[in-house]
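Holo model, D-glutamic acid. Inputs:
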Amino acid sequence: MRLPMRVGVFDSGVGGLNVLAQCMRQLPEVQYYYYGDNANAPYGLRQKEEVVRFVDRAMEQFASLHVDAAILACNTVTALCARELREKYPFPIIGMEPAVRPAASVCRDVLVLATPHTVQSERFRRLVNAFPNCRFTVYALPRLAGEIERCLARGTMLTLSDHLPDCSPDGVVLGCTHYIYFRREIARFYACPVFDGVSGTVNRLERVLFGRAETEQTGIGDHHCPATN
Ligand code: DGL
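Output:
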């Protein structure tokens, strides 16, 4: 009997559960391990060295579980250290990027919401620069991921409009997996489609594990799930 493939899914907290849910829907034959670093979340305002130390602990655990692949279900961690992690660990590490590409393929005026580390990264700058015909409003939200973490884990109140910039885009990219919990509310707030990288990341995992064709051919994890508003 063949043992199931094993995949570790990592996030600073609860955001990556959105990715895990799609993994379980799309690839139910795989065995998953979820590591949410709730004790240290959010990562958005922490120093890179600190984040690398935290993520290393998770990857060590995944290594000891002999995973076939790991997903960084966190845009922030991908932006900060995906490359270093890939050099260090023997299993494939799949990252997540803000879904800029799918948004830019159908929208002209795109708002990108993400953590400060994500928007300040070279990787993100390159991604946005690849679409000169699209106007991007890039907005770093230093506190929203932490508030969502507290809201979901401890039931604290969250006033979304306190965090969202006042503008009228024709598409919004959710560049942090925590924001996906509020995709309907964000879509309603801006009255436009919302994009995230979940299905692209899981398609990538499927290709890495099974060599199946991805349903959309784009970069690492930057596909979209249109909002159902
Ligand atoms: N879910 C993480 C992301 O996608 C949140 C980062 C944080 O902890 O600030 O960026």
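Residues 48-64 form the longest helix (17 residues). The pocket of D-glutamic acid is lined by residues 11-12, 15, 41-44, 74-76, 115, 118, 145, 176-178 (CB under 6 Å).
Archived with the compound record.
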